[in-house]
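Lab notebook, bench 4. The sequencing result for the construct came back, and we need a structural model before the next group meeting so we can plan mutations. Quick request posted to the team channel:

Model the 3D structure of this chain.
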Amino acid sequence: MRIGLVPAFAAALLVSACSSNVGSSSSGDTGSGGAAAPSFSQFTDIPVPDDAHMDVGQTLLLGQGDNWVGRLVFDLRFTKAPSVFDFYKAEMPNFKWQEISSVRAEISVMTYRRGDRIATVQIEEINLGVGTEVIITMGPANAANPAASGDQSQPSAAPSQPPTQPVQPAPPVTEQPLK
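Done. Here's the predicted structure in token form:
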């Protein structure tokens, strides 16, 4: 009977030792060469709730610091979408973002501007309302058209001149039987 307990105890000890390393790294040091858990500390220009869990498979980021572009996807377990909407409504101005528009709905969408960047925050309840998915899309503002971006400091370009020759109409379409 004692001989059967030793292998069972050793197996239990091995399993508990392996599972204690999963997701326990907060400093980026993985110890045994495994992948570090995703960190939100690189996002200094947007608020991210403390209990967010990054969806690495759906996240696509280019750049770093305050100059990143792309899509950040994370979920908040046991958090309802209306409270996430309220969080971003309150916190984005603290990061110097100006609200352009917001729509609170089943899938809420909020759009913000800061300098020459645009952030879109999409919020949707998932898992039968037990959690919330947040998708933040970051990109440059439309710098090619100052009037569209709200920048009135640059004079607008002169309107394009009409063509010197009139545009010829297209030839009429004729019906032909299929062969």
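Residues 80 and 131 are 6 Å apart (CA to CA).
Will bring this to the meeting.
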